[in-house]
Design goal:
Helix content is 41%, strand content 15%. The chain contains 8 helices and 7 strands, in the order βαβαβαβαβαβαααβ. Strands 3-2-1-4-5-6-7 form a 7-stranded parallel beta sheet, sandwiched between helices. α1 crosses α8. The longest helix has 29 residues. The chain is globular. The structure holds nicotinamide-adenine-dinucleotide (NAD). Nicotinamide-adenine-dinucleotide (NAD) binds next to α1.
Length: 253
Amino acid sequence: MILEQFNLSGKAAIVTGANTGLGKAMALGLAEAGAEVAAVYNSTPPDHSGLSQELQARHHPIQADLSDVASVDPLVDQVIDELGGFDILVNNAGIIRREDALDFSESDWDDVMNVNLKTLFFLSQAAARHFVAQGKGGKIINIASMLSYQGGIRVPSYTASKSGVLGLTRLLACEWAGKNINVNGIAPGYMSTANTKALREDPVRNQQILDRIPAGHWGEPESLQGAVVFLASEASSYLHGCTIPVDGGWLVR
Ligand code: NAD
């Protein structure tokens, strides 16, 4: 039955950046669909105190600093130790730096590219190796952006990284579709999180953005739960290399 295909009971997922914002909401959506979730955080562990005992028990907080690819193997090993393996990877952790391109620093370039693109690739590689060894296939879901499609302004490394995420999602899908691994993405629109606080607090930019969103309001982190559960589930088994915009209509404007 079709609804059974969305059921993630018996599956385990890694969600990076799961302590806040979009990652926390997607981790909760996957847990509500039945998955065990390795909720990866860097400095502040996720707070699940408001959740039911059952949902709290499905979250397994794991610390990793994804600015360094050396974190990848220990992270994967810890997840395999604690959860016995995993079937789903959500590459959500990401950072942004804002500065005029004329003044942009090398460290603002490297810091963003390391978390948003380099570690995303090597964590995907480690996950795919695990999926192949496990012999059950798997799901990789990369979190892209409107700036995977558009230029933006004053965020050169972010635009480069998120444009890279879109391309890499396509390449990995081509290489791994035949191994029963679905690689897809979600491109969130303008969502109300810490990442966009500066934009929302700037009255001029905030109004410009609102005027351009057909839905007329910022997205909420929970708006991504349907897409992430779909991409993590059997319901999307023939979907490869696709990045789904969840953007209130921004891209089609
Ligand atoms: P956020 O700043 O609230 O969350 C970012 C997450 O990344 C945090 O959980 C943080 O712990 C994690 N992270 C950052 N650096 C890390 C590191 N070195 N090691 C481990 N974890 C690290 O932002 P958000 O809005 O929830 O963004 C989540 C993702 O969605 C990001 O990839 C972001 O680029 C993307 N995105 C956000 C929006 C938006 O409007 N909020 C739009 C498009 C894309």
